[in-house]
Amino acid sequence: MKVVKKLKIIVLLFLVTACTGVPEGLSPVSNFSLQRYSGTWFEIARLDHSFERGLVDVTAEYQVNEDGSVRVLNRGFNVEDNTWSQAEGVAYFVDDPETGHLKVSFFRPFYASYVVLSLDDDYQYSVVTGFNRDYLWLLSRTPIITAQERQRFEAFAVQAGFDLSELIWVEQERALKPL
Questions:
Q1: What tens digit of pLDDT does each residue of 101-124 get?
Q2: What share of residues in the chain are helix, strand, coil (percent, to 5)?
Q3: Which of 30, 83, 130, 159 could bridge 135 with an S-S bond, Cβ 3.0-4.6 Å?
């Protein structure tokens, strides 16, 4: 009986930590600055997934807490329901604070990877993934990007092994309006 209990605990720990990894062959950015990354980001593009399905005008706000954790506030507009929805979570660095690899939780004790794969020098554009290549986001400090940035993102994503066939370009008409 003790062996079965230990196996269950090991499997549970594996499942909880498996979602906080980095996709094979990819690396998070180094020389990451949470202070510079903090603030509001507009979701420009994403791979389709159930927890954001139907949302437009999506933003993510990151704020450093006193204990070094990160307050995460995601919000988006559901066109079908004609309502705003938001989710608040917390994130922690997986390794060191200069590596763009965090684990984020909206439902504790479950965490998911937040891996910053690419970040421009001015912290205006960020490419983020999860623990595998099923998750991909292009974030920007502005709700509209140039055609050149769009092409740069697509080329980067394809070269990194992402399938862009289900990529959604997110409408950003209401994002700057208050809730």
A1: 999 999 888 999 999 999 999 999
A2: 20, 40, 40
A3: 130
